[in-house]
Amino acid sequence: MARQIFSVIGGKDVASGTAYASINPARPDETVAAVALADAATFAGACRTAAAAQREWARVPAPVRGRVIASIGRLVEANTEALARLVTEEIGKPYAEALGEVREIVDTCDFFLGEGRRLYGQTVPSEMPDKSLFTFRVPVGVAAIVTAGNFPVAVPSWYLVPALLCGNAVVWKPAEYAAASAHALYRLFAAAGLPAGVLNVVFASGADTYDGLELALTDGTVHKVGFTGSSAVGRKIGELCGRHLQSPCLELGGKNPMVVMPDADLDLAVEGALFSGFGTAGQRCTSLGTVIVHEDVHDEFLGRFAEAVRNAKIGDPTGDVLYGPLLDHRFAERYEEYLTWIRPHHTVLPGPTGRMDGTGLYYHPVIVDGVRPDDRLFLEETFGPIVGVTTFGTLDEAIELANRPGYGLSSSIYTTDPKAAFRFRSGISAGMVSVNNSTSGAEAHLPFGGNGKSGNGSRQSGMWVLDQFTRWQAMNWDYSGRLQKAQMDVAEITPDLGFRI
């Protein structure tokens, strides 16, 4: 029998709402969870509940909040296998990858549990006597977090852990098609002792979430918006936040390039292309979009790449496979549209395209050679198991091709020449650069995020995310017993600027 999933606001289930079935994409006739979707008013109400709870949570000393984060990490670690199995069941991610995703939550908690003792401000010298200046990090208030379902537990933790550590309350809207995984993660967070209302989870459609967010921003009960999803939706959320003088944290799509230089280790490059192009069925924001390979090694690389893809195992995500099914019917339909972008001047490898045999949402991996800089397959994000290949003659040309789509999330270069690696790093617009590694892969203590169509320059993970969930507050303390006016009552020491030796 399918799980029954409700939104949780102020520690209580909210039962009313439209019914939604979260399916197992490996067996689409199997419902994993029956989800009650909330409306816009419910989302706005959750933000009011969070605002009321946040005041007390902010008064809890930051090191104590850090201990709560430590407890979350231990709880997740103790429930690793159960949570990973649920992720595999609900979104079709291979079990080995799901285990890695859960590990990322633990790593994030391990990093941030100590930040409760390191939310440092500064003591700053004053230009006046008997006066001291200070800076403090203070929580923003309520964070509304909207996440996608391709990483249903790891990516949310990038937001939830630092937001809560910094003294904020959170209203989290996960993807409906990953509701069971999200609800399980919420229960683990709640079991760590978070007060009711500090973390709320609301399941809703995209349209109702947007309308509810607009209501909450108008009410003044949301002070930070975090969004992971498509560039198109991110642009709408950015516009909405801008009207309320807020700067959201936007982690959006990517058209991530991999440059293969003539001196590259081709076996290593093929291994990186296989993992980043087809791992998670190409449904990562950091998935490989286009291989930009030097014309001298194009044929050899392509032959090896096609052979590796041909030999890759695709199927039941509980087994040892490169990838399983697509996330949901909507992603399968969208992927079939991407396949229509293949043009007569393209060469398709290694075999058939389209849906594979069986009942699951399984699709053949596709390499498209000969993509051109004005092709849709070159310029636009494709969320699924399809990778383009093109050629270049000089490194400057490769960098120009890599930047042309206008995204700027992740990038990669395969070379044994340090000079080429650093030239690529300085010329690429991406927020993340890998050398002799794939475009996919993040560590909990390194900044994650993109530029251009991939985001607004905000960063997640590591100490850098603290700037998303805190605001700087300046304080001056004058103990001179008199009013000292800045820039006016300042002691002057007069130099003899005409002195010469």
What does this structure look like?
The protein is α/β, with parallel strands linked by helices. It has a seven-stranded mixed sheet with strand order 15-16-17-14-13-18-19, sandwiched between helices. Strands 10-9-8-11-12 form a five-stranded parallel sheet, with helices on both faces. A three-stranded mixed sheet has the order 1-5-4. Strand 8, helix 5 and strand 9 form a beta-alpha-beta unit. The model has no long low-confidence stretch (mean pLDDT 97). The chain folds into two domains: 234 residues, Aldehyde Dehydrogenase, Chain A, domain 1 (3-Layer(aba) Sandwich), CATH 3.40.605; 180 residues, Aldehyde Dehydrogenase, Chain A, domain 2, CATH 3.40.309.10.
Could you say how many structural domains there are in total? Answer: 2
What is the third-level CATH name, the topology of the largest domain?
Aldehyde Dehydrogenase, Chain A, domain 1
* Span of the ends, CA to CA: 93 Å
Largest beta-sheet characterization: 7 strands, mixed
Which CATH C-level class of the largest domain is it? Alpha Beta
How many distinct beta strands? 20
Q: Please indicate the percent range of residues in DSSP E strands (runs of 2 or more).
A: 15-25%
What structural class do the secondary elements suggest? alpha/beta
Going by CATH, the homologous superfamily of the largest domain would be: Aldehyde Dehydrogenase, Chain A, domain 1
> In which order are the strands of the major sheet placed?
15-16-17-14-13-18-19
Rounded radius of gyration (Å): 25 Å
Family: Belongs to the aldehyde dehydrogenase family.
Keywords: NAD, Oxidoreductase
Subunit structure: Homotetramer.
Protein name: aldehyde dehydrogenase (NAD(+))
